Amino acid sequence: MINVGVIGTGMIGQDHIRRLTHVLADARVAAVSDVDQARAHEVAAGLPGAQVFATGEELIESSSVDAVVVTSWGPTHEQYVLAAIAAGKPVFCEKPLADTAAACSRILDAEVAAGRRSVQVGFMRRYDSRYLAVREVVEGATLGQPLLMHAAHRNPSVPAHFTSDSIITDSAVHDIDVARWMFSAEIVSVTVFKPRQNRRALASLDDPLLLLLEMSNGVLVDVEVLLNASFGYDIRGEVICEDGTVALSESPGAIVKSNGGFGGRVPVDWRERFVSAFDAEFRDWLATVAAGTEPTGPSAWDGYAATVVCDAGLAALRSGAREPVPLRDTPPLYTS
Ligand code: NAD
Ligand code: ISE
């Protein structure tokens, strides 16, 4: 049984605790921590034998914790990931790995100094069966070389505190990771366009945005991010290849035809749309924790690269120009 400690018991922290407790075998949540102590105690009350720690660092250092899950706010990730690396414990960190390129770089340096990978980043779309099916076609090259990808990321709505920057760093960051993974290539530049503003958005929010990502292999990816779509949570992707196209399938469920029309279900949010991907992501991570091997999912390098691309996206949002992505050299730890 793997004893997992969870730092950050908010929305996704509670969802991962549910999956660790009720869905996945061979793991239990042994400890939790949150700056909101009342929330941490409330969550722990439903977890037999779970301890509550006053700080994330104490949780990481505790001998009752074998592996760490970081689900606190993005700007707090760096301190916990670094502490877990220092303690020699596997750590699963929700996106973003950290909110600045410098912080991500410090995490890379720490892992390189430790001489082994111990960090997995929560880019769960890599575990989604529909994305995996598209990637299999692209990699198999049965449709020739990929040329373009059209992607759309539509949330029904976002909380009032959501800013135009968050559209890139909180939402589009997933599409940025998908582009790097789909084409096994780095993103070399970002341009951001602001279409007409959605009347459903707060005046301060540049919703929607359109991102244009140029890949190192010449593939061009456009990403529509529409955060007040109202009708549901809708994630789309289509890759245009030389001899055909391949797209994410519309639904895992049934398409019903009746009364002269047809339809299926649109998920309400990311929890519903990616529930199986989150389960698969944790199953994969826990298997490596149990085996004592390095994680095989998205690495600290992937987390670093995504954050650097987001920084270029923020610069492009302000400048309106095409902004380059200044990645550091990839340490050999991440190239094998
Ligand atoms: P949330 O606000 O619901 O929860 C965050 C929790 O972290 C809160 O309980 C807060 O009190 C706690 N916290 C803040 N600072 C802390 C600190 N220094 N130490 C310990 N706890 C601290 O937010 P959320 O929606 O659960 O998001 C958490 C993280 O998960 C974010 O990084 C977010 O980007 C990511 N996330 C990922 C996905 C995905 O699809 N992979 C979806 C949602 C959120
Ligand atoms: C949220 O934080 C996520 O990570 C979801 O996957 C994403 O779709 C949503 O836009 C974000 O706000």
Structural overview:
This protein is α/β, with parallel strands linked by helices. The protein folds into two domains: 2-125 and 276-300, Rossmann fold, CATH 3.40.50.720; 126-269, Dihydrodipicolinate Reductase, domain 2 (2-Layer Sandwich), CATH 3.30.360. The chain is 37% helix and 23% strand. The protein contains ten helices and 15 strands. It has helices at 11-23, 37-44, 56-61, 77-87, 101-114, 129-140, 164-182, 270-273, 275-291, 300-319; strands at 2-7, 27-33, 51-53, 67-70, 91-93, 119-121, 146-154, 187-193, 209-215, 220-226, 234-241, 244-247, 256-258, 261-263, 323-324. The strands form three sheets. Strands 12-11-7-10-9-8-15 form a seven-stranded mixed beta sheet, covered by helices on one side. A hairpin with a 2-residue loop joins strand 11 and strand 12 (244-247). Helix 5 (101-114) runs antiparallel to helix 10 (300-319) and helix 7 (164-182) crosses helix 10 (300-319). The model has no long low-confidence stretch (mean pLDDT 97). Bound molecules: nicotinamide-adenine-dinucleotide (NAD) and (2R,3S,4s,5R,6S)-2,3,4,5,6-pentahydroxycyclohexanone. Nicotinamide-adenine-dinucleotide (NAD) is lined by residues 7-13, 33-36, 39, 56, 71-74, 76, 94-95, 122, 124, 170, 270.
